[in-house]
Design brief:
The structure holds two protein chains of two kinds. Chain A is built from two helices and no strands. Chain A is mainly alpha-helical. Chain A has one domain. The termini of chain A are far apart. Among the domains of chain B are: about 150 residues, Rossmann fold, CATH 3.40.50; about 180 residues, no CATH class; about 170 residues, Helix Hairpins (Orthogonal Bundle). In chain B, the strands form three sheets. Chain B has a six-stranded antiparallel β-sheet, with helices on one face. In chain B, a hairpin with a 2-residue loop joins strand 6 and strand 7. In chain B, about 25% of the residues are buried. The chains are: A mainly alpha, B alpha/beta. Chains A and B meet through helix 1 and helix 2 of A and helix 6, helix 7 and helix 15 of B.
Chain lengths: ~50, ~800
């Protein structure tokens, strides 16, 4: 993903602030740990919400 | 002047174990070698040194071990040094790594030396991007055409081909990001699980309470309908009732000799339920004790009746046997035993004789027969040759005659010699006068006469004597044999006479006057005697056994009668015998029958059970009443749980919606970015495509978006009039050309100050014409670009060598654990 172009594009297009924050978190996790880290993060979120 | 890679020094990375240094040409550097010779390892080393990872080495087995550090290197460390130069400003990039557990994790520090300046890690990478005017993130797709990417374009599914195009265009990571966010199924499952939990709570708690309350009301109505009052449906009332039942049970237990049971009865539902159960068991045990006692008395009575009948029977039998004289029986048994002993001895003696007679008789008869035979033989011999002395005398006479014959033969021999001499003398002298009497003689007639005498008369006399000698010698041989036979027969007769005497004595022991008997008849009579003795034995044994049996039965009868009488006397506590004793037994049986009557009555137990049964329903009612109370107390908490779960369900649905929005926008970006890039590269792609002889008719490539989420590209070729989907109509060589065109266009656009193109097996599905076009294209990339090209294909190598002037070739031989065998051609 080339620099901040993708980040800026998506952040600008998402209408809700919550979704923007969520996207930025996902992107950060993906950039730092790759696909496996993002899958793990998502599973963790779902598990936490499910209780 | 843009930068070029001058050289690479590498050790302990991928297929390289020992240190190697390769210098690159400014134009094309061709790496030629068979599969597995180390070409790709060298290209991967350049990529790793620049960006710190090797794409395609992240998932699957690569996540289970370190695929970067060489397996055989002793230091367990990878080290790559890449030198760049723009003609005056050298850059040295060094990256290292220690062997880890996964390919994609672990530290791998980079150091960049620019002039006197040395930078590390993020600073180093930022400086490289600044100087080379490239993005290291985009380095793989901008500089390297991986053989895996090309393979995906050529042979994979439509989605995988679209991913490969993303890789060529640099939008692959966005695709991966969007794909990873596809958690609809997980979210849906999680929401379902939450809904199921809410439903379970509703069902198990709320609905359960309502049902229980309804059931409780119905039970209460039923119980009141049975005669119970409102105040009976309380714990204290139930406790009182159970206490009453317990007292009744204790009283009954004493009657049936059952020990008392401690049962806790307090006005709490759990205690009362346990007490009810314990009382139920206790009453059952008491009833069992009643039945067991009754059974025991019945058994006693039955035994007494059986014994009474048996005693009466034994007495009757005893009456019938009391006249038996036991001492007389004993005496008779003794007599019989004595008779049997005697019979046994007689039988034994007869059997001994019967056994011994055949052998002894045989010995006797054999000796007798042999003796007769030998005596006859001797008699015959003596008839022929005379007695022993006569034979001896004949032999002696023969000896004398032989001596005489010998003398006669010697005399004749002397006469023969004299006559022969006379003949020789007459023949020599030829005298006509007798030398003795001086009378005239006829010499010739005399010689003739003498010769006749010698040859006829003397010869006849000698022959006669020799004939006699031969006959006498023949007689002598015969007489010698007769003498030996005489002696042998005489000796044999003596021996046989002794044997016959012995056999006679033995036979006489068995049959003293055997000469008076026919032995065969005698044996038969003995056998008859033995049979008679046996019959008598059998008769005696039968009589004895009968007597003994009578005696035994009498003893047994007396024994049993005595034992039974003692038992009945003990039962009736009396010393009576016979009929008086039986009367006592009858009395005892009657008393037991009366006792059984008392145990037959189960009214007490039935009454207790009748009282306990309704308490079971009352306690069930009270237990449900308590459950209702507990459930009503829990209800607010349950409702709170349900509300919390509803909120979680909403959050999961909100997250699903957010993910959907993010994926939509991200896909939109991917779509726009891809299309922008394709638009930007359109002319360049088509230029390259036509130069590699894409297709004679369809000369332009057209890549469009066919579907979103995931983004699928359609890959078409067009002419002035038509267009068609490449994968359906074109050869893989044309797809190969299309992929190369996209890569080269993108690479050219993102060249920066490092116009490097790395091609790993780029002609893998091309025919000769396409390969030649490709070689020409590579030549045309020079001198603007630096090209590093790896191939195993002889034809590609030959065509590159034919068309490219700025060429440096390395040949890689057979790989070993030390690493590739590299030689510059």
């Amino acid at each position: 993903m080339s620099g901040n172009i993708f980040k800026d594009y998506v952040a600008e297009k998402l209408p809700r602030e919550d979704d923007r924050q969520l996207f930025e978190k996902f992107l950060k996790v993906y950039q730092e740990g790759g696909k496996e880290a993002l899958v793990k993060h998502l599973k963790g979120m779902i598990a936490e919400l499910e209780g | 002047m843009p930068y070029r890679i001058n050289s690479i020094r590498l050790q302990g990375i991928r297929g390289f174990n020992k240190a190697e240094e390769i210098t690159f040409g400014e134009g094309v550097t061709l790496l030629y070698g068979q599969n597995g010779s180390g070409k790709s390892s060298l290209l991967q080393a350049i990529e790793w040194a620049m960006i710190g990872n090797i794409p395609y080495m992240k998932k699957g087995d690569f996540a289970r071990e370190d695929a970067i550090v060489n397996l055989f290197t002793k230091s367990k460390k990878a080290n790559v040094e890449v030198k760049l130069n723009d003609g005056g400003n050298p850059i040295v990039i060094t990256r290292t790594r220690k062997m880890g557990t996964k390919t994609s994790s672990g530290k791998q520090p980079i150091e960049v030396q620019v002039g006197d300046k040395t930078l590390t890690d993020n600073d180093a990478e930022a400086e490289l991007e600044r100087i080379l005017k490239i993005s290291l993130t985009n380095f793989p797709q901008a500089k390297i055409l991986h053989q895996e990417t090309l393979r995906d374009v050529l042979y994979a599914t439509q989605e995988e081909r679209s991913q490969a195009i993303d890789k060529l265009l640099g939008t692959y990571e966005v695709r991966e990001f969007v794909k990873t966010l596809d958690a609809d199924l997980q979210l849906s499952k999680a929401a379902t699980r939450v809904t199921e939990t809410i439903d379970a709570l509703q069902r198990d708690k709320v609905q359960f309470l309502l049902n229980l309350k309804r059931s409780l009301e119905q039970t209460k109505t039923t119980l009141l309908g049975t005669g119970l009052r409102e105040e009976d449906l309380t714990l204290s009332s139930s406790a009182r009732s159970l206490k009453g039942i317990q007292n009744g049970a204790e009283e009954l237990a004493r009657v049936y000799k059952k020990t008392s049971r401690e049962i806790n009865i307090e006005p709490s539902i759990s205690t009362l339920l346990n007490a009810h159960k314990a009382l139920s068991n206790y009453i059952t045990e008491i009833d069992r004790a009643r039945l067991e006692a009754m059974s025991k008395i019945n058994d006693h009575r039955s035994t007494l009746q059986t014994d009474s009948v048996r005693y009466r029977d034994l007495r009757g039998r005893f009456e019938g046997m009391k006249n038996i004289d036991s001492p007389a029986i004993t005496a008779r048994i003794s007599e019989i035993d004595e008779e049997l002993r005697k019979l046994g001895e007689q039988k034994k003696a007869l059997r001994l004789k019967l056994n011994a007679l055949p052998q002894t008789r045989n010995k006797f008869e054999t000796a007798e027969s042999n003796l007769t035979s030998e005596r006859n033989a001797l008699s015959e011999l003596q008839k022929k040759h005379g007695s022993f002395d006569e034979i001896t005398s004949k032999i002696s006479n023969g000896e004398k005659r032989l001596e005489e014959i010998t003398d006669g033969l010697e005399k004749l021999s002397g006469q023969q010699r004299l006559i022969t001499l006379a003949i020789e003398c007459l023949e020599i002298t030829k005298d006509e006068t007798c030398p003795v009497c001086s009378q005239g003689i006829n010499n010739a007639a005399l010689v003739k006469d003498l010769r006749s005498k010698v040859s006829d008369e003397l010869k006849s006399a000698v022959n006669d004597l020799r004939g006699q000698e031969k006959r006498i010698r023949g007689e002598r041989t015969e007489l010698d044999a007769a003498l030996r036979e005489n002696k042998r027969l005489t000796d044999a007769i003596k021996t046989l006479e002794v044997a016959l005497t012995k056999a006679t004595e033995e036979l006489r022991k068995i049959v003293p006057d055997f000469e008076q008997h026919n032995l065969d008849e005698l044996v038969k009579s003995w056998e008859v005697d033995v049979a008679n003795l046996s019959r008598r034995e059998t008769d005696f044994t039968g009589e004895s056994d009968g007597l003994k049996d009578t005696q035994r039965r009498l003893i047994e009868l007396l024994g049993e009668l005595k034992t039974l009488q003692l038992k009945l006397q003990k039962e009736t506590s009396s010393t009576k015998e016979g009929t008086p004793l039986l009367e006592e037994v009858e009395k005892l049986i009657s008393a037991l029958e009366v006792e059984v009557e008392g145990y037959l009555d189960s009214t007490g137990v039935d009454s207790l059970r009748g009282k306990l049964s309704p308490q079971s329903d009352v306690l069930a009612y009270l237990r449900d009443e308590e459950r209702v109370e507990v459930a009503e107390e829990e209800l607010p908490t349950v409702q709170k749980q349900i509300d919390d779960l509803e909120a979680r369900k909403s959050s999961l649905q909100a997250l699903a919606a957010s993910l959907q929005s993010i994926r939509q926008v991200s896909t939109q970006f991917q779509k726009e970015a891809s299309m922008t890039q394709l638009k930007r590269l359109e002319d360049s792609i088509n230029d390259y495509y036509s130069r590699i002889q894409g297709h004679p008719h369809f000369t332009r490539l057209k890549i469009d978006i066919e579907k979103e989420d995931p983004l699928i590209f359609s890959f078409r070729a067009t002419s002035d009039q038509e267009d068609t989907y490449i994968p359906t109509r074109f050869s893989t060589a044309q797809l190969n050309a299309a992929a190369l065109s996209i890569f080269l266009s993108n690479s050219e656009q993102q060249g920066g100050d490092l116009p490097l193109i790395i091609l790993d097996d780029p002609t893998q599905s091309m025919d000769t014409a396409h390969k030649e076009a490709f070689a020409k294209l590579v030549s045309a990339l020079l001198p603007k670009h630096q090209v590093i090209l790896a191939t195993e294909d002889d034809e590609t190598k030959a065509l590159i060598e034919k068309h490219c002037r700025m060429l440096k070739t390395y040949e890689l031989g057979v790989w070993s654990t030390e690493g590739p065998d590299i030689k510059q051609a």
